Amino acid sequence: MSPRQVLPLSALCVTALLAAPAVLAQGAYPSKPITLVVGYPPGGSTDLTGRTLGDALSRQLGVPVVIENVGGAGGTIGAQKVASAAPDGYTLLVGANNEVAISKLVTRTVKYDLKDFTPIGLIASQPMVLVASTTTGVKNLGEFIAKAKAAPGKYSYGSSGVGTALHLAGEMVKERAGVFMTHIPYRGVAPLTSDLVGGNLEYGVFVLSSGLPHIKSGKVVALGTTEARRSPLTPDIPALGEHPQLKGIDIGTWFVLMGPARLPEAVTTRLKTALAEALKAPEFRQKMEASGSTVAAPGGDVQRFLASEVAKYQKIVQFAKIEQ
User: Fold this and answer.
1) Which of these, 173, 217, 278, 293, has the minimum number of CB atoms within 10 Å of its CB?
2) What span, in angstroms and rounded, lies between the C-alpha atoms of 36 and 13?
3) Cα-Cα-Cα-Cα dihedral of 199, 205, 209, 215, to 10°?
4) DSSP, residue by residue, 210-248
5) Extended beta strands in the chain, E state
6) 294 SS3 class
7) What is d(CA 321, CA 218) in angstroms, rounded to the nearest whole number?
8) What is the pLDDT of residues 291-315, one digit of tens each?
9) Under 8 Å CB-to-CB from 53, ≥6 apart: which residues?
């Protein structure tokens, strides 16, 4: 055998040996547990969404999906952790409006941006609801607007905090209706409900699932939900946009699955496929709908959606001059 015949064979062997460690190191994704970060303590709507999705993704991906609650600063600490994580697909975020799209617009200390994440897909959405204290005597949107216009600055509304989706929904109502009310930020649903029931606060904005028990018990009066159409969960409560002076209001809470920026294309594709299958699973849909959420349609353009949401919030933030 001549040297010319031996050399190509040797070169092929060397190439194969050099390539083998890289192939073995890369492996098939996923090959170990995945951490799903939720930027809030256990028990809230984002945590419920994360745990429900984690179970569904675990079945699709064949590895454990572990929920890690990283609470604080309105979800931004958890979001920052994922933005700073290695882009290998083993640290993901179940994010909501506040930390994904709003906080950067209102809080100077937030250092990350949308470009620091790889959006994988929308999970679900849920409307908010504008409610009135029974002490106001207000029964519907027409009465609410008339009363607020007749006494500018006399009435207040509460939300779960400055710069939250609930706060922005309230400011959107003020802008569209042409009314002036003072915003009162609360630390959770319990104190907000207490003041509404006690007559210390006239109006409030809840996530629908949080407000529904108090609406059903008669502690507060539901005036309207915030998405473009009525919620299937509460078909008897009108959408705010049905009122002529509130036409065009469409703002809800939503949840999205995201990874760090520069996530490999193969990993992103695998996660998108797993998410799409999870969204179609009957058990997942049943649990999410029972909590008041509408499951997202698989395969939507999540980047376009997020960009449009940021643009919407930017207008509200500028109108209300919200800054922390």
Assistant:
1) 217
2) 42
3) 30
4) HHHHHHHTTSEEEEEESSSS--TT-TTSPBGGGSGGGTT
5) 34-38, 65-69, 91-96, 117-133, 156-159, 182-185, 203-207, 220-225, 252-260, 294-295
6) strand
7) 34
8) 889 999 998 899 999 999 999 999 9
9) 36, 94, 123, 257, 275, 278, 284
Report the C-alpha gap between 268 and 263 in whole angstroms. Answer: 6
Which residues share a beta bridge with 129?
206, 225
72-77 contacts, C-beta under 8 A, 24 or more apart? 72/39, 73/103, 74/39, 74/98, 74/99, 74/103, 74/107, 74/161, 74/163, 74/164, 75/39, 75/40, 75/46, 75/99, 75/103, 76/39, 76/103, 76/107, 76/110, 76/112, 77/39
Instruction: Quote the DSSP letter at residue 99.
Output: I
Q: Answer yes or no: are the C-beta atoms of 88 and 305 closer than 8 Å.
A: no
Q: How many CB atoms lie within 10 A of CB 180?
A: 13
Tell me the one-letter amino acid at 241: G
Under 8 Å between Cβ of 68 and 93: no
User: In the chain, which residues have pLDDT < 70?
Assistant: 1-27
In angstroms, the CA 232 to CA 252 distance is 14
Within 10 A of 314 (CB to CB), how many other CB atoms are there? 13
Q: For residue range 127-184, what is the model confidence (pLDDT) as tens digits?
A: 999 999 999 999 999 999 999 999 999 999 999 888 999 999 999 999 999 999 999 9
Spatial CA neighbour of 171 closest among 219, 203, 210, 126: 203
Please tell me the total number of residues recorded for the chain in this structure.
Answer: 324
